[in-house]
Write a structure and sequence with these properties.
Blueprint (H helix, E strand, L loop, with lengths): L2 E5 L3 H13 L3 E6 L2 H10 L4 E5 L7 H10 L5 E6 L4 H9 L4 E4 L4 H12 L27 H11 L4 H8 L3 H14 L5 H10 L21 H11 L6 E4 L5 E4 L1 H7 L3 H4 L12 H17 L3 E9 L2 E13 L5 E10 L1 H51 L4 H31 L8 E3 L1 H18 L3 E7 L5 E3 L1 H18 L4 E10 L5 E10 L10 H17 L3 E8 L2 E9 L3
Parallel strand pairs: 1-2, 1-3, 3-4, 4-5, 12-14
Antiparallel strand pairs: 6-7, 6-10, 8-9, 9-10, 11-13, 14-15, 15-17, 16-17
Length: 572
């Protein structure tokens, strides 16, 4: 007598197995209806053998088995599977199962498996294909994880993503991710391809079709019907299968609902036998189908047509449907109405064109304003220079100097606005050349030293750059550095501004110039004439950083301090 645990999602299966085990002289010490409970039973009760269904919710049978083996629990594990196809036998052996018994086998087989497991022997019925000594790497499932194999089996049973998510207690997003991994690993372009691979390798259980029927005229085996059911049942999109003559032999509920008909009314009908499309369109669709059948290849296309009297744009696909022997039985077809999506795409395109047109008009307006202002600014600058040269009294010279400074700032803003407008229009481009960035930074600091001293700002700089030329655009980089340094100086009169530059290597090997600006406020107020320009100047700097494909972070922890971090990628 052995102490047994039974894990199966089906209550009748658990009851039948439990009664059979008791009649055979064993004791059932626990039952579980999902993988998580089965694992907890394996840990919590003393059992000799666990009968573990392969297809359990929350955790699959293989996942439970691996956890049991990881914790070195002494229980023998017999897997109950849909079949003993080579891929599953090898997977169970690799996971160190003690036996694999197909669910539809004679009870004597299960009795032998239990006896062998208790005696320390493994029991695996050989499939009709290659012996198990052959390497498993030749199987298309060798690269799949246990969870991916479980999801493939659920897909083969016709379950949609939300149902699989409920069964395994995971999110639909996770199921979608596993489906993508399955397509990539099995080289499948669609769900139909996945199901075809699963059917060819015996992963489809025999399931009686519920929402789909075969045509009475079709000569299909039970396995072929199961394959059609798995592809169609539960799919939210309209799907159907036609035979070698173009006659409909199977469809799903979504297809019948779309056309407002019943299966009995359309089975055995060709496209030209129904009134869903105008006659010339129906004939064209039938011809396309026969051409696809002759080529034996899959295809996707967008079709602008008329259906049930209304213009529609359909994204259609067709995939050859073959039996287990590779014989062509027909073509699986599907479509999705993308009329609204196409109309939305056109509306978005028109909105984008309108936005780009408005941006161009704005740029033209700003450039026109700058063009009108520049001559006036130049004239005012020349007039102030003449007044200074005339030997005006010291008090007048001080006012003249202040006015000249304002004119100089205004001229700089005009330059910045013109650059930003040209940047938006794509008229500015980079001209990288070998540049000593350290010298460029020293020149930037020197050019603003006098101005900083005038505002009572202590200007400090330090560089930790290699003494070599680096590929940058010296004009745009130099202008950006001056603008940011001037921003800090103007915004913190009587304070201190520190500038530190170094090179940084990213994980992908790309080198950047990293420049840090730190400014603290002093005992002087910000010039009222300069304050409005600070925000605009920062926007111009961000536009310049975008042009240089860099990044900039501006932080103002308090009203008395500012920190700017700039990173500019070096050209190779």
């Amino acid at each position: 007598m052995a102490r047994m645990v039974v894990a199966s999602v089906e209550p009748l299966t658990r009851m039948a197995l439990g009664q059979w085990l008791v009649d055979a002289g064993h004791e059932v010490v626990g039952e579980a209806d999902d993988g998580y409970k089965a694992y907890q039973l394996a840990r919590g009760v003393t059992a000799d053998v666990m009968l573990l269904d392969l297809d359990l919710p929350r955790l699959s049978g293989l996942e439970v088995l691996k956890r049991v083996r990881t914790r070195k629990l002494p229980v023998k594990v017999i897997i109950l599977g849909a079949s003993a196809v080579e891929a599953l036998v090898q997977r169970c052996m690799d996971a160190d199962a003690d036996a694999l018994v197909p669910r539809d086998q004679d009870p004597a087989i299960l009795h032998r498996a239990i006896a062998d497991a208790l005696a320390g022997r493994r029991y695996f019925p050989l499939p009709d294909s290659a012996p198990l000594a052959a390497p498993a790497s030749g199987s298309p499932f060798a690269l799949l994880s246990d969870r991916e194999l479980t999801i493939l089996k659920y897909l083969a049973r016709g379950l949609p993503n939300n149902a699989i998510a409920r069964e395994l207690s995971i999110s639909e997003k996770t199921v979608s991710a596993h489906r993508s991994h399955l397509r990539r690993k099995l080289n499948a372009r669609s769900l139909v391809d996945l199901l075809e691979i699963a059917r060819q390798h015996g992963l489809m259980e025999s399931v009686a079709p519920a929402s789909m029927k075969p045509s009475p005229e079709s000569d299909l085996s039970a396995a072929d019907i199961d394959a059609m059911h798995a592809m169609l049942d539960g799919a939210p999109l309209p799907l159907h299968i036609r035979d070698l003559e173009g006659r409909l032999i199977a469809c799903n509920a979504a297809f019948l609902e779309l056309h407002g008909t019943t299966f009995e009314a359309v089975v055995g009908k060709r496209m030209t036998d129904v009134d869903w499309f105008p006659p010339h369109i129906a004939q064209s669709l039938h011809t396309r189908y026969m051409n696809r059948l002759a080529s034996g290849t899959a295809k996707q296309a967008d079709v602008d047509t008329t259906r049930h009297g209304q213009r529609v744009i359909l994204h259609t696909w067709a995939h050859p449907f073959r039996n287990a022997q590779g014989e062509l039985l027909g073509v699986a077809c599907g479509s999705v109405d993308v009329t609204g999506r196409s109309d939305m795409a056109r509306a978005l395109w028109l909105q984008r064109e309108e936005a780009e047109s408005a941006s161009r008009r704005k740029s033209e307006l700003f450039l026109a304003i700058c063009a009108q202002m520049r001559p006036a600014v130049d004239v005012l600058s020349d007039m102030l220079a003449e007044l200074r040269d005339c030997g005006s009294p010291p008090a007048s010279n001080e006012r003249i100097g202040a006015a000249a400074e304002v004119i100089h700032r205004l001229s700089g803003l005009i330059d910045g606005i013109e650059d930003m407008m040209r940047l938006e229009e794509g008229e500015l481009s980079l001209s990288p050349q070998p540049t000593n960035v350290g010298t460029l930074i020293d020149d930037t600091v020197s050019s603003l030293a006098k101005y900083a001293s005038h505002l009572g700002v202590a200007l400090r700089s330090r560089t930790d750059l290699p003494d070599e030329d680096m590929m940058v655009d010296p004009v745009h980089v130099g202008r950006l550095l001056r603008a940011l340094l001037r921003q800090c100086v103007v915004g913190h009169p009587g304070g201190e501004v520190a500038m530190y530059a170094m090179t940084v290597t990213r994980s992908d090997g790309q080198r950047d110039i990293a420049v840090q600006f730190d400014a603290t406020h002093g005992n002087k107020p910000v010039d009222p004439l300069a304050a409005p320009a600070i925000g605009l100047n920062l926007s111009l700097c961000r536009a310049a950083v975008e042009l240089l494909k860099g990044s900039m972070q501006h932080r103002a922890p308090s009203a008395l301090s500012t920190s700017i971090t700039l990173r500019i990628p070096l050209h190779k």
